[in-house]
Design brief:
- The chain is of the alpha+beta class.
- The protein contains four helices and 13 strands.
- The strands form four sheets. The chain has a five-stranded mixed β-sheet with strand order 1-2-13-12-11, with helices on one face. Strands 5-6-8-7 form a four-stranded antiparallel β-sheet, with helices on one face.
């Protein structure tokens, strides 16, 4: 239950869970809303073509991260390519994108053939075969939307976390807790 404090407003305490933390601190195309239903977050419109193998994804132009940054189509393309190339990430979410096999065999950074920027807020993703859960899978906490040309990891106190693109940000990290805020609500994760 929230505890009222004159210094920080409403405060909630949780046991550290990286899934919950990353769900708050990183933009998602779709996410759970307050009623725990799947809803659009960064996603504005998605159009499906070619029997479910081609998706045109339009991003919400009004979305701003806690840092005041817009998330652009090039950021999402970068995120797909990062996951396809990075050795320590789960590749399941990008494995059905056209060109994944070719990229996974290369030693150097490779751009997925099936991911293209159409304009500043629109991208097209082509899959090898239809995947009815493709957009839903992108809401998974394992898929972090990152900013192109930003540091991969941010150091905040005692933490190193992927560059934050969500509406909440880690603002303090000690040996005992992590503080996350959106400017109105502070959440604390006990370590």
């Amino acid at each position: 239950l929230p505890v009222f404090s004159n210094n920080i407003g409403f405060q909630k305490n949780y046991i550290y869970n990286h899934t919950m933390l990353f769900s708050l601190t990183h933009a998602k195309l779709i996410a759970l809303n307050k009623s725990l239903e799947i809803s659009k977050d960064l996603l504005s419109i998605s159009e499906v073509y070619d029997s479910g193998t081609r998706f045109v994804i339009k991003l919400d132009r009004s979305y701003k991260s806690y840092k005041g940054e817009h998330i652009l189509a090039e950021d999402l393309v970068y995120s797909f390519n990062f996951f396809a190339n990075h050795k320590k990430t789960s590749k399941v979410l990008v494995s059905y994108i056209k060109g994944f096999e070719e990229c996974s065999k290369k030693e150097k950074f490779c751009e997925l053939e099936g991911v293209k920027v159409k304009d500043k807020y629109t991208l097209e993703v082509t899959l090898k075969k239809p995947s009815p859960r493709f957009l839903e899978d992108l809401g998974d906490s394992a898929f972090l939307i990152m900013k192109k040309d930003k540091v991969e990891l941010e150091k905040i106190g005692k933490c190193e976390i992927p560059y934050q693109t969500g509406r909440f940000n880690v603002v303090e990290c000690t040996e005992k807790y992590i503080k996350v805020t959106n400017g109105q609500l502070d959440l604390y994760f006990s370590k």
